[in-house]
Amino acid sequence: MRCGSQLLHEGDRIEDIVRRCGEPAERSRTWIVRPPHFELGGREYSFPGREDVPVDVLIYDLGPQKFKRKLRFVAGKLERIETMEHGTSR
């Protein structure tokens, strides 16, 4: 997905994407439980235990000539972009 002249990439932070793309048409949050993670040198490591992690879904409606996009974030980082049906007139 592109916002203006910038492409979105896995690992982008949710606040950076909202700053570039604007507020989404829809937004929701759920939670998952997973082993704790930490990042060091660009790599993620997990260790024993459990942590609650937010899962945010943002849906961007790009208008009737384009497809809607569903962006899924885990712990604030972009995990996946899905293409949905055509958008609606805004």
Describe the protein's architecture and organization:
Helices cover 9% and strands 54% of the residues. The protein has one helix and eight strands, in the order ββαββββββ. The chain has one helix at residues 14-21, and strands at residues 2-3, 6-7, 26-34, 37-40, 43-46, 51-60, 67-74, 77-86. It has a four-stranded antiparallel sheet with strand order 3-6-7-8, with no helix packed on it. A two-stranded antiparallel sheet has the order 1-2. The longest helix is centred in the N-terminal third of the chain and has 8 residues, at 14-21. The model has no long low-confidence stretch (mean pLDDT 92).
What topology emerges from the helices and strands here?
Blueprint: E1 2-3, E2 6-7, H1 14-21, E3 26-34, E4 37-40, E5 43-46, E6 51-60, E7 67-74, E8 77-86
Antiparallel strand pairs: 1-2, 3-6, 4-5, 6-7, 7-8
Could you write a compact summary of the structure shown?
By secondary structure, the protein is mainly beta. The chain contains 1 helix and 8 strands. The protein is elongated.
Distance between the termini: 19 Å
* Annotation, overall tally of beta strands: 8
Integer count of domains: 1
- SSE string: EEHEEEEEE
Share of helix, binned? under 10%
Low-confidence stretches: none
Overall pLDDT metric: 92
Amount of beta strand: over 45%
Q: Structural class, from secondary structure content? A: mainly beta
Which oligomeric form is depicted?
A: single chain
Major sheet size, sense and barrel closure: 4 strands, antiparallel
Shape annotation: elongated
Which strands sit side by side, in order, in the main sheet? 3-6-7-8
Radius of gyration: 15 Å
**How many H/I helices?**
1
